[in-house]
Amino acid sequence: MSSLWWRIFYNQIMILVAGSANLDFVVRAPHIPAPGETVLGGDFKTYPGGKGANQAVACARAGGAPTTLLTAMGADSFA
After folding, report:
1. Dihedral (CA of 17, 20, 23, 27) sign
2. How far apart are CA 16 and CA 70, in angstroms?
3. Contact by Cβ (8 Å): 20, 51
4. Contact of 60 with 8, CB cutoff 8 Å
């Protein structure tokens, strides 16, 4: 493989991740509840997540090729 051909081919590589993008709701609790037990939650935070979104972030951070995420977004207040 000629080095010129490889440079042309390599510059055209991109990564497309098709997958989910979610908003994770996390509530802290003093302990893991036993079966049937109700535990009062404390601190509440939201974090970006989803298998596709996490993979796209990992690819983009690794570098080497431009990365794009293809996903569907909702129309609620968290979208």
Report:
1. negative
2. 7
3. yes
4. no
Q: Which residue has the tokens 């404390």?
A: 42
pLDDT (tens digit per residue) in 56-71: 999 999 987 889 999 9
Cα–Cα dist 67/50, whole Å: 16
Asked whether residue 36 carries a pLDDT value surpassing 60, the answer given is yes
- Helix segments in the chain, DSSP class H: 3-10, 51-62
Instruction: Give dist(CA 78, CA 61) in Å, integer.
Output: 25
What is the C-alpha to C-alpha distance for residues 79 and 68, in angstroms, rounded to an integer?
18
